[in-house]
Amino acid sequence: MTKPSRIITLTTDFGSQDYYVGAMKAVILQICPDIRFVDISHDISPQDIMAGAWVLKNTAFLYPAGTIHLAVVDPGVGGERRPILARVKDQYFVGPDNGLFSLVAESENCELVELTNRRYWRDEVSNTFHGRDIFAPVAAHLCTGVPFAMFGEKKSELTTYRWAKPIYDDEGVQGWVMHIDRYGNLVTNIPESVIQEHVNKNRYKIYVGNTILKTISCSFSDVQDGEPVALIGSSGMLEIAINKGNAGQMLGVEKGAPVSMVIQKSSL
Length: 268
Known about the structure:
Blueprint: E1 7-12, H1 20-31, E2 36-41, H2 49-57, E3 68-72, E4 82-88, E5 91-97, E6 110-114, H3 130-143, E7 153-155, E8 167-169, E9 172-180, E10 186-191, H4 192-198, E11 204-208, E12 211-213, E13 216-217, E14 228-232, E15 237-242, H5 247-250, E16 258-263
Parallel strand pairs: 1-2, 1-3, 3-5, 13-14
Antiparallel strand pairs: 4-5, 4-6, 6-7, 8-9, 9-10, 9-16, 10-15, 11-12, 11-16, 14-15
Helix pairs in contact: 1-3
């Protein structure tokens, strides 16, 4: 069993103009002053659990074994959702059980405890700031060597978000835009493996909004500045982008918009 390290990452929708991130770090440092912090992102769109899950999926397992990932995107704070500590592979995750950890645990075994042992919370707990009063002290105590099982009651499974998969048949693949990054690139839920299995050997057209693309390129620069391009991004998913532009804005496409890869029959 991998022991927790002295690395704590933070992923939140708190932004940088308020005191929230600083307060969590202060609580952690009071308990374990030799922590190494890594700020993954504090610019998750407010209350966007899916975006937070996507960021964690693409970063968490790149960190050294034993890293503790403190993640707070928590629109249900103070409600019925559970505060949890999870261990997935050789990484630890602390935060709300609202689907935020769905993607990191979707194909891995997950050990899970609900954070019911108030000994490892702050003495006073706000109904609106569990990041400071529950999650931060738990992460810090985990670093000091408190055993995993001491934090609460063992549970069998995470609460999962409804992550829809692309649909495919002889006609092609139907997916949707599940994330729009800072550059406006449209990240779909269509993985490269699905494209290779169901589409690659055929002629096809990609439909997104009012735009039609006929090929998947290798890089943004395969098209002229301002032109749309389809490619496989660093996450291994199909993306639609504008070379040196913002695809979300320029194509008028929002998260959740359909993206279709339609196989072109030989008679067409």
